[in-house]
Design goal:
The complex is a heterodimer of chains A (425) and B (253).
Chain A (H helix, E strand, L loop, with lengths): L1 H11 L3 E2 L12 H24 L10 H14 L1 H7 L8 H4 L10 H31 L2 H10 L8 H34 L12 H27 L6 H32 L4 H9 L3 H25 L4 H27 L11 E2 L12 H21 L4 H4 L17 H5 L8
Antiparallel strand pairs in A: 1-2
Helix pairs in contact in A: 2-3, 2-4, 2-8, 2-9, 2-13, 2-14, 3-6, 3-9, 3-14, 6-7, 6-8, 8-9, 9-10, 9-13, 10-12, 10-13, 12-13
Chain B lengths: L6 H32 L9 E6 L8 H10 L10 E9 L4 E4 L17 E10 L7 H5 L5 E3 L5 E3 L9 H5 L6 E3 L4 E3 L5 H4 L6 H5 L5 E5 L6 H8 L2 E2 L11 E4 L7
Parallel strand pairs in B: 1-11
Antiparallel strand pairs in B: 1-9, 2-3, 2-4, 5-6, 7-8, 10-11
The chains are: A mainly alpha (425), B alpha+beta (253).
Chain lengths: 425, 253
Amino acid sequence: MAERFEHLRAALGQVQGYIYPNEIELHWGLLVVLYPYITGLVAGAFILASLAKVFRVKEVEPTYRLALLTALAFLLVAPLPLLAHLGHPERSFEIFLTPHFKSAMAMFGFVYAWYLMVVLLLEIWFEYRADLVRWSEREHGVRRILHWLLSLGSRSLAPEAVAFDKKAVHVITLVGIPSAFLLHGYVGFIFGSVKANPWWSSVLMPIVFLFSAIVSGIAMVLLLYYLTTLLRRRELDMKCLDKLASFLLYALIVDLSLETLDFIHRLYESEESIEILATLIFSRLFMSLTIVQILIGTIGPLLLLAAGRFSSLPAELKRVSYFIAALLVQVGIFSTRWNVVIGGQLFSKSLRGLTAYKLELGGIEGLFTAIALLVLPFVILFVLLKVLPPWPEARERPELATPGSAAGEGVKAGEDAAEDAPLGA
Amino acid sequence: MAEERTRREVLGQLAQFPCAAMLLACCGPLASLAQASERRYNAKDHYYGMGIQVDKCIGCGRCVEACKAENDVPREPFYFRTWVERYQIRAGGEVKVDSPDGGIHSFPPTEEDKDVLRSFFVPKLCNHCDNPPCVQVCPVGATFKSQDGVVLVDQDYCIGCRYCIQACPYGARFLDPRTATADKCTFCYHRITKGLLPACVEACPTGARVFGELKTLASPLRRMMRMSKLAVLKPSLNTEPKVFYSDLDGEVR
């Protein structure tokens, strides 16, 4: 407690102008920045996956399963920062038991459960079911038992069964797209509906959140596809990378346009709050907004992606420019979340002053917890990649598959079939 | 037709009086208990609000002190159920607002008092909005509007998500560091339900704060509201505050 008071006393010295006395404590810190960042990655990765299935963008097919697993790994971690941030995490179940239906936040549990149970887990299961059966038939030991268990007793590899799987995946993806929009649009709504806060209160907020989610999700899958392929010493599918880069570029353009629209709209309406928001942008948020979010995180990647897509760079250089662009996008989107969550609390609701956010290192809401929570999805993803390898060579081994089952998707089977066993076997 | 009573009967009845009086004296506490239960507080019969006469506030900070003492609010200067702001409007039009330690120790003298056009104090507290954004956003319903119009927090139910703190346009809420739950002014609910006044109202030496019933025409609050030019804070947000200010300057937010 004494430490906390010390911290607040230090913050008191940073106040500029007048803020309400209760505003010295900044309530939503780094962990609440993580939450929209992580759910954004989930929604974005899923929307990328749906490109392959619903919109039949053949080029991005190699990233389909990877995108699903990425979405799952991040979704499993998504509630943790919120939980760690609560004053009474042990009471969090009350959100499910006695939800207050007028509260945007109360819907979190339901949106989350729907997305996890109905969309992601089901889609992954249907997508992998036939492979799980095949794997458990030829494997030994723990993996055999694990894959046997994961197939949930549905062992048929008959063509009708496999066809049903495909149909199910298609239907779930169809339901999944609006769900992914809901998942992240809803996070935007949590902020956008706070009329007390002029920095947050905007009808564009859910849409801006959604497009920044798509941007971050595509960039994350691009990074993961790039790294996992190189680590497995395989060739990068340049067509796939090009397509990913194109989608990333388009999503970035839409995202930037929306943000610019929001900015111009605020400036043009020039409401009561404009003065303090302008001061905020040019002082406390200058670094994280103008430099990191806009220059490094948006303009930089736009140029790199455009250079990769529309110039005749050699493939190696293109790849690197995509990779760097995707990396910068992650930095940019993280600072976007930061600027929304932290930025919205740096000015007083009296519109007469600014306060500061001083990041703590230790403690449950400190930097180390945040880093741990950012690393955790990658650990989960690593395990998922071992258990459910998404690589083409793990998927299509016609010589091991039972007759008829490989028929549906055997086009590319030859290319990788000769390669060794799946990663981690 | 009245019965004619004998002298004996009349004397007997007279003798019963002291006995009855003694009995009553003994049962006094019991009797008053019985009376109290008959007059038990019924939230439906009340609808509370507060009036603040800005021109009467002298910025002494007694209300802030009384509130902290009465409600066991943490003494550190980051937690206030009520506080007092001082506005100094300078000749050039610029406005300086301060509230050192919430005004609990009153205010230091103005430094450049020569160029201050006018100066005044504004006590602030939870507005107990009729359309409270904090209640709207609470994910578990731990904060609610009671039947008598007071916005309260259930400390045993609050999960400490702090969404209500973000949603309050007036900065009236804080997170109690001891309970890790949201806290705010209750109009001294434990007092008003016993017919007492909120601590801040009772402590105010100038009667700047008027507490009372909003729906009873004869209440002191309604009288003050009839006699004054009223304003509420941030009316554009449609929160419908039930704290009404008289003679409020347009600079106050």
